[in-house]
Amino acid sequence: MTDVTFGYDRRRPVLRGINMAIPRGKVVAIMGGSGCGKTTMLRLIGGQLRQQTGKVLVDGQSVKDLSRDGLYALRRRVGMLFQFGALFTDMTVYENVAFPMREHTDLDDALIRDLVLMKLNAVGLRGAAQLRPAELSGGMARRVALARAIALDPMLVMYDEPFAGLDPISLGVVGQLIRTLNDALGITSVVVTHDVYESLKMVDYLYFVSEGRIISQGTPEEVRNSTDPFVRQFVDGQPDGPVPFHYPARPYAEELAVRAR
Amino acid sequence: MPASTLARGVRRIGAGTIRAVSRAGFATRFFLLVLRHSPSAFHRLQLTAREIYFAGVLSLVVIMVSGLFVGMVLGLQGYDALNKYGAGDSLGIFVGLSLVRELGPVVAGLLFASRAGSAITAEIGLMKTTEQLSAMEMMAVDPLARIVAPRFWGGVISMPLLAALFSVMGVFGAYLVGVRLIGVDNGTFWGNMQAGIGFWPDVTNGIIKSLVFGIAVSLIAVFEGYDANPTAEGVSAATTRTVVGGSLAILALDFVLTVFMFRGLGSG
After folding, report:
1. Using CA atoms, how far apart are residues A104 and B50, in angstroms rounded to an integer?
2. So what's the pLDDT on residue B160?
3. CB B257 within 8 A of CB B208
4. Distances, alpha carbon B178 to alpha carbons B73, B189, B203, in Å
5. Predicted complex: ipTM over 0.95
6. Which of A72, A16, A23, A21 is nearest to A40 (CA)?
7. A144 with A173: CB under 8 angstroms?
8. Please, which residues 58-117 of chain A have a Cβ atom closer than 8 Å to chain B?
9. What is the distance, to the nearest Å, from the Cα of residue A21 to the centroid of all Cα atoms in its chain?
10. Residue B60 lies in a domain
11. Is B140 in contact with A83 (Cβ distance < 8 A)?
């Protein structure tokens, strides 16, 4: 990503001049508060949104300039895990994982069955194949979605808030899975998250984003020792700091006085 | 003061018009896209068959029961009115014509909009809200081809069949009341109906009407679902718009179609 600027409308840019490199085979985390444009970056990489300026290159191809067919060909090699899994609720777990294979390959049912069970086994949910998404816990749903994301052996997997709303055990399981799958399958992973503690344990490199800019980056070691006030506030979870506690407002006293009259 | 109120009113009308026109344009483009993706809905028939089951088969009960009752009421009221002029024997043709030409397509269409149309909108809207459509797109599967087109065609195919069944049940209901209860002569009832209703134009026009209603309601249903705001209120508003918009579309289209289809018949 070089010099990427993006805004949903002209007046309020979400991303302002983002420069970011995601090396092959690594797990890279993009961190930042809610609403700072993290998910937007994933959507730019996946071609669901198009940046106003700058370039987004995936495997040497500029995503913005791809034709529809080219974009779909690229997406076949990219897996994405959505915030709450986004499993298809009208299918079983098995059918969810089989879905990309059925849509994009001519494999026969027996082979698909073996592949699906392998993917489910990798996330530890082979026994849940016949359950419906509504019967899964949050952590299980996330793992099924992970199995679906790696169904076609992608080169890149993007994770949108994989840790949001999980209990500590599921959190550890999902974090561990992201790391092991990345190394075992030789894929590249981009993890968008605000969970510092979990990310520091498993990623190779971190980017900190605030108000549409990258304000800090480094390896987990560098981040732990960082003195940057934003990184410190983020890592230590302090309520006030460079990111203010208060949403911009008129002075408190003034507002109360007006109301009192 | 009145001038500014006036200006505000004009502005609001203008903004509303622009919004309506741009939505209509968007809906038209959406319709064309759905048509372009339709071959895949027929290429993989089991997808469309599943939607015919959901939109059509599951609507059978409400359609058939309503048809039966509408027919029975028609039988009662129709006989009462006709008998005042000594035309009680014409009950068969009266009931048959009103069902096949009007009530079958229109009432079945209204029921279809509220039973199947709302379900389609809510389903697609919720899939959008829970990012399932987005996820599908990211898996390089076009939701228009995989989700929207089969539901659209499922509705279009189901609707004429449901309307026909509605009419059949209606005629049966009228027979129960007219012949069995009131005592209109059995042969007269069926004979009059057979003589008075032509396959062309009456039955075919009824089928054409129900097909047009099916296209309109299905398009509105998939469009509203696809266009819904991805929130709980958004989906609920979209579902309401499907039922209201679909019903109004049926009534308006019915008038237009009737004008064209049956205009010359009275004088001829």
Report:
1. 21
2. 95
3. yes
4. 10, 8, 22
5. no
6. A16
7. no
8. 72-73, 75-76, 78, 80, 82-84, 86-89, 99-100, 103-104
9. 15
10. yes
11. no
Give the mean pLDDT of A140-158. Answer: 88
* pLDDT band of A201, cuts 50, 70, 90: confident
The CA distance from B176 to B76, in Å, is 10
Cα distance between residue B41 and residue A112, in whole Å? 23
Say which of B135, B141, B142 has its CB closest to residue A80.
B135
Which chain A residue has its CA at the smallest distance from B145's CA? A103
Beta-bridge partners for A193: A31
Q: Is residue A129 part of a domain?
A: yes
Q: What mean pLDDT, rounded, does chain A reach? A: 82
- CATH code: domain of residue A106: 3.40.50.300
Residue B240 lies inside a defined structural domain of this protein? yes
Give the β-pairing of A2-7 and A61-62. unpaired
Contacts of B132 in chain A (CB under 8 A): 86-89
**Which among A192, A121, A111, A171 has a CA at the least distance from the CA of A150?**
A121
Residue B161 pLDDT: 95
The pLDDT assigned to A31 comes to 83
- Between CA B155 and CA B151 the distance in angstroms is 6
Domain assignment of residue A106, given as a range: 21-35+85-242
Identify residue B3 by its one-letter amino acid code: A
pLDDT at A5: 59
Task: Encode pLDDT of B191-203 as tens digits.
Answer: 989 888 888 888 9
Please indicate whether, in this complex, the C-beta atoms of A48 and B137 are within 8 angstroms of each other. yes
CA–CA dist B36, B148 (Å, integer): 12
Q: Domain total for chain B?
A: 1
Residues forming beta bridges with residue A210, ordered by sequence position: A213
User: Do B223 and B35 touch, CB atoms closer than 8 A?
Assistant: no
Cα torsion at A13, A19, A23, A27 (round to 10°)?
Answer: -50
* Number of domains present in the structure of chain A: 1
Look at residue A115 and tell me if it is in a domain: yes
Name the residue range of residue B78's domain. Answer: 37-262
Q: What is the dihedral of CA A90, A95, A100, A104, to 10 degrees?
A: -110
> Tokens 């289209």 — which residue?
B253
Q: How far is CA B82 from the centre of its chain?
A: 30
Report which of B199, B204, B211 is spatially closest to residue B253, judged by C-alpha positions: B211
Rounded Cα distance, A107 and A118, in Å: 15
Among chain B residues, the shortest Cα distance to A149 is held by: B139
* B256, B208 Cβ separation under 8 angstroms: no
Is A11 part of a structural domain of the chain?
A: no
Positions in chain B short of pLDDT 50: 267-268
The full length of chain B comes to 268
B164 CB contacts (<8 Å, ≥6 apart)? B104, B207, B210
Which two structure tokens, joined as six digits, stand for A179? 């790391």
Residue located via tokens 């035309």: B87
Residue A80 lies in a domain: no
